[in-house]
Design a protein that fits this description.
- It is a single chain.
- The protein has 224 residues and is α/β, with parallel strands linked by helices.
- The chain has a single domain (43-223), classed as Rossmann fold (3-Layer(aba) Sandwich), CATH 3.40.50.
- Helix content is 44%, strand content 17%.
- It has 9 helices and 8 strands.
- It has helices at residues 2-19, 36-41, 62-73, 77-90, 92-102, 116-122, 126-136, 165-172, 200-211; strands at 48-50, 53-57, 107-111, 143-145, 150-152, 176-178, 188-195, 216-223.
- The strands form 2 sheets. The chain has a 6-stranded mixed sheet with strand order 1-2-8-7-3-4, with helices on both faces. Strands 5-6 form a two-stranded antiparallel sheet.
- The longest helix is centred in the N-terminal third of the chain and has 18 residues, at 2-19.
- The chain is globular.
- It binds zinc ion.
- Zinc ion (ZN) is lined by residues 24, 26-27, 29, 35, 37-38.
- The site of zinc ion has 7 residues, from α2.
């Protein structure tokens, strides 16, 4: 029953978007969920937070914080779609250089997974929505989403709730499992996350993929 209600909520939100254009989370004008004027005004994050992890916006900005909160807890898939599009545009140069490096075969895009249990209770994985939209901005031969590689085994404490780096690294250690590893041999992979705090989650996944034979792995986060 709960599952049916969740699905209904998602469908209802989707229909509402068609009938009534969203109010921008920033200026409240009825046009787009995040209009370009407001997006331009959001402070950018320090771009490279860790080696091979790039973040776009400064998470302290209230608009981006609100956007991610609503995407995560209020079934606002439209926000994820917009963020995926923005991520693609802003990181186009990086994608392009990865592409040249990759000669012909698609770059694999892996959204940071949430546990099955959490996915069941929330009804969706918000980073998957971002990643899907990110891939949809271009051809399937360029970016290809892969959700059958990395899985989250345990429900960790949200990284932002832990105060120090060691606790965060310990929290995330062993949380992810890799499957179908033969598919990622010599591949170039982009990991997508909504918010990266210390980069611990992404680093854990990056290392796991590299150990399993991926050629190059980098992480893109919407906010830091
Ligand atoms: Zn606006």
């Amino acid at each position: 029953m709960e599952k049916v209600l969740l699905k209904l909520k998602v469908i209802l939100n989707f229909l509402l978007e068609i009938i009534l254009p969203s109010k921008c989370l920033g200026c409240k004008k009825r046009q787009e969920i995040l209009c370009s004027d407001c997006l331009d005004r959001i402070d950018k994050a320090e771009r490279e937070t860790e080696k091979d992890i790039l973040a776009l916006y400064d998470y302290r900005n209230p608009i981006i914080k609100d956007a991610i909160w609503k995407l995560k807890y209020y079934h606002k898939g439209i926000i994820g779609q917009k963020l995926g599009q923005v991520l693609f545009i802003e990181f186009l140069e990086e994608i392009y250089s990865l592409k040249t490096f990759n000669e012909g075969s698609p770059i694999y895009v892996i959204p940071v997974p949430i546990s099955q249990e959490r996915k069941r209770s929330r009804g969706y994985n918000q980073t998957e929505i971002i990643a899907k939209s990110f891939c949809n901005q271009t051809d399937k031969n360029v970016l290809k989403i892969k959700t059958n590689i990395i899985f989250k085994n345990k429900n960790t404490i949200p990284q932002a709730k832990l105060t120090n780096r060691n606790k965060r690294l310990k929290n995330i250690k062993g949380a992810f499992e890799i499957k179908n590893r033969e598919e990622i041999k010599n591949k170039i992979i982009i990991i997508i996350d909504d918010v990266t705090t210390t980069g611990g989650t992404m680093l854990e996944i990056i290392n796991l993929l590299k150990k399993s034979g991926a050629k190059k792995v980098i992480g893109f986060a919407v906010a830091h």
